[in-house]
Structure formats: structure tokens, C-alpha cells
């Protein structure tokens, strides 16, 4: 069974290829980290997979009607904008309502609890800090309670503890049998929490496998242009970038 199937997804901007024939499938139980340098095409790949931007090739999600897609996949974009001064509880409930469920559906309380937001539930969402708002928006996506969650840099701007907590939440979803696709820049977080890593480089999928198989010194140099110190800890590997290769 596949939660997402892409077949030769390609897209160009101003005659420059941004996605080059990306084919892959995402299965239940996978927490897939999407890695790549700035501009590699991570956001574009997720948006094209969701049908939010036009691309050639096929995506199993892009051809769904909006209501079907809302029941299949929750999407957390990179831009974190909370426009209305509503309560945290109400904002999270919009996730449930996106798929036609009631504001008090159990998925809403579960999402608030999962993201540790009970102390904030009656606060005005626009008055929260940037990192707190990021957790609220992830909670809204969780409240949609879908088989697949796609999140674009959900831990950017979170403090280290909240990054770990958020990654644990995403991994737990996968361990429960859902699928997760999450773009990240922290190689250690990706290695420790994801079951599988995809690496994009200049719009091409250049690696797809376990963190151990993917995050080699050669790949870090060739794709990310870094020499990194790897430390193996009881929690898993961490990577400390030390120098660039090219200059
Ligand atoms: N509308 C557009 N017009 C021109 N170029 C675009 C457009 N949208 C995206 N691009 C280019 O496509 C490439 C991929 O962008 P994308 O946002 O997918 O990268 P990313 O891997 O998510 O990067 P980051 O890590 O910086 O978020 C970039 O070079 C970007 O400049």
C-alpha cells in the first residue's frame, strides 16, 4: 500500500529545471526526511506532490478532489502565518474541520496534548511567540488526523528541546502506521528520528535509503558542500558541520 506515489514529477521555472523526473512511493510506517541544500527543490517537490503547483508527470495526491485530499494528507507549509486572533484551541480545531469534522472532535484534544499546548489552549494564537505558533500550526495539521502528513521545515526556529519533541511526535505517527514526509536542515535530527532519507540536489533525487546508508562523508561533501564531524551517541548520530569543501 502506498500513501503517495510520484512518477517522473518534473517542473521548470524560467526554463531552469527545479524538479527532474522524481519517482518515489511513501508507505505507511515511514518517517521520511527530505534533505537538500537551499534551493534544492524540497518545498517545490512537496507542493507539486500535493497538486499545489503544476508539474509534469504523476502524483497520486494531485489528482484527488480537495475533500478527498484533505482526508488523505495534512500539509504544513514553510510560511507560518496566523492571520486571525483566535484561540489556540480554535485554530487547532480548524485541522479537524478541514476534513468536515466537528470542532470538538477528539483529534483536536489529542493534537493539543501531543504538542504540549494545554497551557496555551485559551491564549490568542497571534500573541504567541514564533516557536509557540509553529507548534500550534503543527498541532493543527495533526488534528486533521490523516494517513499522511507532509511538513516543510516544521522544526525551524524551535528551541532544541522542542525540536526533539516535535521530531518524536512525527516519528510516533509513523510508528502508529501513518506516513510522514518532513523537510529538514538538521542532519542529526533527520538521522536520529527518520526511518528513511531522501536527498534532493539541484532538483534531482540523488539518494534514497536509511540514514546510515545515505549520510556518508561523500554525500555530505558532494551535495551539501560540507565536511562534518560525526559523533555516534546512545541517541544516534549527530553531525557537526566544520568546514565547506569548495572554499
Ligand atoms: N516561482 C519561481 N520562479 C523562479 N524560481 C523559482 C520559483 N519557485 C521556486 N523557484 C526556484 O526553485 C528552486 C527550488 O526552490 P525550493 O523552494 O523548492 O527549494 P528548497 O529546497 O525548499 O529550499 P530551502 O531549503 O531554501 O527552503 C530554487 O532555486 C528557487 O529559487
From TrEMBL:
- UniProt entry keywords in alphabetical sequence: ATP-binding, Nucleotide-binding, Translocase, Transport
PROSITE patterns, sorted: ABC_TRANSPORTER_1, ABC_TRANSPORTER_2
Q: Which domain of life is it from?
A: Bacteria
Keyword ATP-binding applies: yes
* Matching InterPro entries: AAA+_ATPase (IPR003593), ABC_transporter-like_ATP-bd (IPR003439), ABC_transporter-like_CS (IPR017871), P-loop_NTPase (IPR027417)
A GO molecular-function annotation:
ATP binding
RNA-binding among keywords: no
> What are the ABC transporter domain coordinates in residue numbering?
4-227
Pfam families attached here?
ABC_tran (PF00005)
In UniProt terms, what function does this protein have? Part of the ABC transporter complex HmuTUV involved in hemin import. Responsible for energy coupling to the transport system.
Name recorded for this polypeptide: Iron complex transport system ATP-binding protein
Amino acid at each position: 500500500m502506498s500513501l503517495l506515489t510520484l512518477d517522473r514529477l518534473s517542473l521548470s521555472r524560467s526554463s531552469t529545471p527545479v524538479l527532474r523526473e522524481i519517482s518515489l512511493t511513501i508507505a505507511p510506517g515511514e518517517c521520511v526526511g527530505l534533505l537538500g541544500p537551499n534551493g534544492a527543490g524540497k518545498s517545490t517537490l512537496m507542493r507539486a506532490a500535493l497538486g499545489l503547483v503544476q508539474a509534469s508527470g504523476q502524483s497520486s495526491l494531485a489528482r484527488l478532489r480537495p475533500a478527498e485530499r484533505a482526508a488523505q494528507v495534512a500539509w504544513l507549509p514553510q510560511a507560518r502565518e496566523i492571520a486571525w486572533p483566535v484561540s489556540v484551541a480554535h485554530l487547532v480545531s480548524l485541522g479537524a474541520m478541514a476534513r468536515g469534522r466537528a470542532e470538538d472532535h477528539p483529534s483536536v484534544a489529542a493534537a493539543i496534548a501531543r504538542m504540549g499546548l494545554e497551557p496555551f489552549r485559551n491564549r490568542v494564537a497571534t500573541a504567541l511567540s514564533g516557536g509557540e505558533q509553529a507548534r500550534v500550526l503543527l498541532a493543527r495539521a495533526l488534528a486533521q488526523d490523516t494517513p499522511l502528513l507532509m511538513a516543510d521545515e516544521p522544526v525551524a526556529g524551535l528551541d532544541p528541546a522542542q525540536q526533539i519533541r516535535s521530531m518524536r511526535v512525527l516519528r510516533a505517527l509513523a510508528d502508529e502506521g501513518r506516513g510522514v514526509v518532513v523537510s529538514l536542515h538538521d542532519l542529526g535530527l533527520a538521522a536520529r528520528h527518520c526511518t528513511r532519507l531522501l536527498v534532493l540536489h539541484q532538483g534531482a533525487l540523488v539518494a534514497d535509503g536509511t540514514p546510515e546508508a545515505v549520510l556518508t562523508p561523500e554525500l555530505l561533501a558532494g551535495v551539501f558542500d560540507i565536511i562534518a564531524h560525526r559523533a555516534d551517541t546512545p541517541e544516534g548520530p549527530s553531525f557537526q558541520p566544520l568546514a565547506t569543501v569548495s572554499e
